[in-house]
Amino acid sequence: MSGIAASSEQSASDVWARVKRRLRAELGEDIFASWFGRLELDTIGDGCAYLTVPTRFLKSWIESHYSDRVLAVYRAETAHVERVSIGVRSTLGREPAPVRRAPEAPRPSNVTTLSGAGVPAEQKSLSAPIQFDERNEASDLGGAPLDQRLTFDSFIIGRSNALAHAAADRVAHHQTGPALYNPLYLHAGVGLGKTHLLHAIGHEVRAQGRRVIYLTADRFMYGFVASLKAQTSLAFKERLRGIDLLIIDDVQFIQGKQIQQEFGHTLNALIDAGRQIVVAADRPPADLESLDERVRSRLAGGLVVEVGALDEALRASILTTRIEALKGVHPTFEVGPNVVSYVARAITANGRDLEGAVNRLLAHATLTSSAITLETAETAIRDLVRNREPKRVKIEDIQKLVASRYNVSRSDILSERRTAAVVRPRQIAMYLSKVLTLRSLPEIGRRFGGRDHTTVLHAVRKIEKAIGEDNALSDEVELLKRMLQE
């Protein structure tokens, strides 16, 4: 019986994997990642697939907009599912409201608290007009708390992030006159420090006694939808627009026409009133295809700064700083400079992987009571090196490289010209965009002068066939791939 149960469980898992693949193909990578990336299968019973998500907002949104699509895809994959139910993980019907903390006496702005035991530095005074971070979900505008560890003092500056740090510092300390660089838009891949800078700005501005709210995209969307249901949307808008600094993280996840319109109205109202806005995303405003064009234009109208990849010197500095901090708690934790150099060279993806590497080294040192050597370091971080994320390739980079390689301009590739000298490079660029990025065919078509997805599909198939028949072209395309991924 246990073998049958295991087989049934494996079958359900396989079906769910196929359902997700079909949803990704039908809806496109952006929509899938925004709404279905955290959707998981819990169990199947009595003809019902029980799915779970981490937040009530995701549950409400999927049920309202995609439940029929999910069920249709499921029924196309298996006859055993007749309905779909979506629940919230780690809850029993109701999520508890956040604990309300008692305020404490004001703390000097130059004091940095690294322990999580105390009251956050941003909760300084009962006299502040609005304590956004203390509001619970019933208020429709619960700002996420600021992490006490993420301050300007704890941010390590290197060549790749110096401009972003300087802009963030200038915005945070600007107190008179119109807002600077409005909005300030920071973009970067995962774990490169953009969220750290957002929290640092929030801490500094709150220390000046000004009103700040920090929201993730999910939180903004949940607050707006909840206010509509409770018929308190006017109060929601008034509270949101009555602050001095609005910080929005992961703006690429904002979805829905009505929510985007409200987000755009909020941006306009705050900017027109001279209030500061700081936004972070994983790509530049022009690449946020799912966002309304007017919102993208507004975001691009301020200062747009990319937080670049961590170079080796910066990675070594981050490792050294983290190791020194841990030595205060574990005095016997010693990591030699040769090990630090090795880890800095081996792990290149992001700061979170560096944090994971230090934690693995600490675990080895404390659990085995032995010194950290190069050999033990190699073993400890092997999974981080093996699972290192590849470089994220941008369609714009593909277009520029292909244009340069074939002696045409990028505008030629995006144009309607149909000469052989332009058509072949255009098709190669479309093919590379399909195989090296997660963009859907319609998205790629839009980035190539607003072409239809069928044009992109034709180009991809034509280059695939040509590669199989022409060794010289195959070698050329492989070279372009390597150049883009290095």
From TrEMBL:
Start and end residues of each stretch annotated as Domain I, interacts with DnaA modulators: 1-96
Compartments it resides in: Cytoplasm
Region entry Disordered, spans: 92-123
Region Domain IV, binds dsDNA: start-end pairs: 366-486
Molecular functions per Gene Ontology: ATP binding; DNA replication origin binding; lipid binding
Domain spans labelled AAA+ ATPase: 180-329
GO terms (BP aspect): DNA replication initiation; regulation of DNA replication
Binding of ATP, residues: 191, 193-195
Coiled-coil region(s): none
Occurrences of domain Chromosomal replication initiator DnaA C-terminal (ranges): 394-463
GO cellular component, one term: cytoplasm
Main location: cytoplasm
InterPro entries the record matches: AAA+_ATPase, Chromosome_initiator_DnaA, Chromosome_initiator_DnaA-like, Chromosome_initiator_DnaA_CS, DnaA_C, DnaA_dom, DnaA_N_dom, DnaA_N_sf
Functional note: Plays an essential role in the initiation and regulation of chromosomal replication. ATP-DnaA binds to the origin of replication (oriC) to initiate formation of the DNA replication initiation complex once per cell cycle. Binds the DnaA box (a 9 base pair repeat at the origin) and separates the double-stranded (ds)DNA. Forms a right-handed helical filament on oriC DNA; dsDNA binds to the exterior of the filament while single-stranded (ss)DNA is stabiized in the filament's interior.
NCBIfam families, per the entry: DnaA
Family stated for the protein in its record: Belongs to the DnaA family.
Record text about domains: Domain I is involved in oligomerization and binding regulators, domain II is flexibile and of varying length in different bacteria, domain III forms the AAA+ region, while domain IV binds dsDNA.
Quaternary structure note: Oligomerizes as a right-handed, spiral filament on DNA at oriC.
Protein name: Chromosomal replication initiator protein DnaA
